[in-house]
Amino acid sequence: MSQTGQPTALFELDRADHVRADPDALSELMGMRARLMKLHGLTPELDDNGCIKWGSLTEADPDAELVFLGLDGDRGCFAAVPKRPVQVQRGEFMATITRLHDRQFGIYAGARSLVDWHARHRFCAQCGAHTTIGKGGWQRNCVNPDCGASHFPRTDPVTIMTIERREEDGSRRLLLGRGLGWPGNLYSALAGFVEPGETIEEAVRREVMEEAGIPVAQVRYLASQAWPMPSQLMLGCTGVTFHEHIVVDRTELEDARWFSEEQVREVMSGRPGLFEAPPRYAIAHKLLRMWLEKV
Amino acid sequence: MSQTGQPTALFELDRADHVRADPDALSELMGMRARLMKLHGLTPELDDNGCIKWGSLTEADPDAELVFLGLDGDRGCFAAVPKRPVQVQRGEFMATITRLHDRQFGIYAGARSLVDWHARHRFCAQCGAHTTIGKGGWQRNCVNPDCGASHFPRTDPVTIMTIERREEDGSRRLLLGRGLGWPGNLYSALAGFVEPGETIEEAVRREVMEEAGIPVAQVRYLASQAWPMPSQLMLGCTGVTFHEHIVVDRTELEDARWFSEEQVREVMSGRPGLFEAPPRYAIAHKLLRMWLEKV
């Protein structure tokens, strides 16, 4: 908080897990000083620096369920669950992410995933009865006493990977693909959900085999990122193959092909090149950069 | 498959993603040669080598929903969804996992997570209507035409981490904890769910701070494992700290403390030591071993 009592736009959010299960602490935090994330549906209001704008809880619909996001110092920060599930177009989401300040990405990603999950889980998947919000928004509870199931927000692990082929002359090639209906001439790293029963490394190998027919030898984890459309944990990996012939799965991809180091470097330098690179805020961008830097 | 037409107990399961959305291929695979995982509730029948036993689809309850697990060569492999959610005690689950062959872990883990998820998702979380199985068991669809939501099996990412403290004399200490109600004198790596909006590395730091009050500097991913109780993706990491004073979160842990390299080595060698090590099939066991080997 600044000296004037105005909240500073940039702050670290303490998730304050211990508060969630403490109804007294939670209701105390819902007082005058509480902050409400300014959301229109799932789209945040941002200031000129790309920082999320906050209001007070009085701005929320009186019937709205409130999710406790965490603490900014001693002030509770909340977000309101939309009345019904909101469909956000990819363009609107991308416009938000493009403008959003890097250091606010996690705060927005967490809030968006949570309130969207609540809006889509007002009923119990086990018995069909109503559910009510619990633990400050980190749980929903079935109201049917014969069921009483608890439900928790979900985060879906997704692998995303740069796959490298080494030529006999020592040069390197990178496997990139284009999803169906992707804008412009965008090519990016292949990606896919981790399935029940798999490790990260198995999921990488299965996805690359399914989508491009390429067997992958060694797989290495590089970095992760939250991706709130709707609630993924992107697991950035890199892998090596000695196989060249691509078989594109046309139900998933429009195209997949090998690019040379020079081609990727040109595109990532921002100059017009053979294809469009993934946007800078996507983990795919970071993975392509790491591939160029041989991380 | 062996020459005699009997299925071999050990085989690689091809998840055959392309079959799931192809009703004709699926129904063809459900013929005479199809294999059904022998499950009692969620507990598999195992042979003397710890391999899963399989029967034919005629052994399934005629009303049971069937999940397509994948292909063994050209034979479809399936598992039946229990009529109602099954509660498995930790002891029964551990007994299964202890006996299960290493190379069958992923097959069982995937099947168990899937059929358990179906048994708990017979209703639409969005509108409360019934759902029906779709895509060979990799989806459920709401029957209410005004809703029509699709639901997908979930996999919850969980971080689990060895945290190392380096002494001035160059010796190393390892942070381990005991969960509430854990058997015997078991100590293991701290662990916790990745929350919406977090990276793996952020989740590791938050969990270790919450559970033990220890700030973690550098975090490094080491390995992952599926854990079907009910459906986790365990993300094994290691981290370094320079902080000594532990503050145990008594709502989560019974104890947390530093162990010396000698103490951990003794316990992991199988000799009676200061504590009991996590069982060999758990990723925690692998993480402790990697810590000793300075991986």
From TrEMBL, chains A, B:
What InterPro entries does the record point to? NAD-cap_RNA_hydrolase_NudC, NADH_PPase-like_N, NudC-like_C, Nudix_hydrolase, NUDIX_hydrolase-like_dom_sf, NUDIX_hydrolase_CS, NUDIX_hydrolase_dom, Znr_NADH_PPase
Give the record's GO CC terms.
cytosol
Under the heading SUPFAM superfamilies, the entry gives: Nudix (SSF55811)
Identify the domain of life. Answer: Bacteria
- One GO MF term: metal ion binding
Biological process (GO) annotations? NAD+ catabolic process; NADP+ catabolic process
Q: What class of enzyme is it?
A: hydrolase
> What is the E.C. number?
3.6.1.22
Coiled coil feature spans: none
Query: What is its cofactor?
Result: Zn(2+); Mg(2+)
Q: Which UniProt keywords apply?
A: Hydrolase, Magnesium, Metal-binding, NAD
Question: What reaction is this protein's catalytic activity?
Answer: a 5'-end NAD(+)-phospho-ribonucleoside in mRNA + H2O = a 5'-end phospho-adenosine-phospho-ribonucleoside in mRNA + beta-nicotinamide D-ribonucleotide + 2 H(+)
Tell me the ranges covered by the Nudix hydrolase domain, including all copies: 153-289
Q: Per the similarity annotation, which family is this?
A: Belongs to the Nudix hydrolase family. NudC subfamily.
Q: What is the name listed in the Swiss-Prot or TrEMBL entry for this protein?
A: NAD(+) diphosphatase
Q: Which organism is it from?
A: Croceicoccus pelagius
**What does the record give as the organism's lineage?**
Bacteria, Pseudomonadati, Pseudomonadota, Alphaproteobacteria, Sphingomonadales
